[in-house]
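Lecture notes, unit on protein representations.

Consider one protein chain, 134 amino acids long.
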Amino acid sequence: MPFKRYVEVGRVALVNYGKEYGKLVVIVDVVDQNRALVDAPDMIRCQMNFKRLSLTDIKINIRRSPKKSILIKAMEEADVKNKWENSSWGRKLIVQKRRASLNDFDRFKLMLAKIKRAGLIRRELAELKKGTAA
């Protein structure tokens, strides 16, 4: 399968290190082979090293170095936030954040629910095995 995630203007990326960790940004210009100019609706445009970016499959149609208002409009038209939240990568990160925010009692309730679910599955499997054996 050919490589599909190229560093290009309009590519949406996830920041994987630093102050902006976990934010979705858009590459608005390529500075050199190691850095890109990135921007997002809730941050100031800045240079970022490619090692700090994880490229996503999402791409928006913008020109090089657009104004902030044009970028925001293009992101809304492309429905970037919704596409990200519906992707498997985005859903996984949402679940990780939700689990990290659980307190001790919530983790205890989750443990009990898992035990109960495993018991139900075990019981149903035993009934199915008994039915096929008879």
